[in-house]
Design brief:
alpha+beta
Length: 55
């Protein structure tokens, strides 16, 4: 998992234009394949990752 600080990476913020923060993006082969906006529990994040094929 990689953390990206949007204050230090304004280009990424502009490119993906999330409708809220925190924003979680899942990338495959350099392309965003799924995302979630808002606060989630660890269990919810794990389930989201699992449902997208991430162990």
């Amino acid at each position: 998992m990689t953390y990206l600080d949007n204050d230090q990476n304004p280009a990424a913020l502009k490119k993906y234009n999330p409708s809220g923060i925190p924003a979680f993006y899942l990338f495959k082969n350099g392309q965003a394949v799924s995302y979630r906006i808002g606060y989630y529990t660890a269990a919810q994040i794990k389930e989201w990752l699992r449902s997208n094929g991430v162990a």
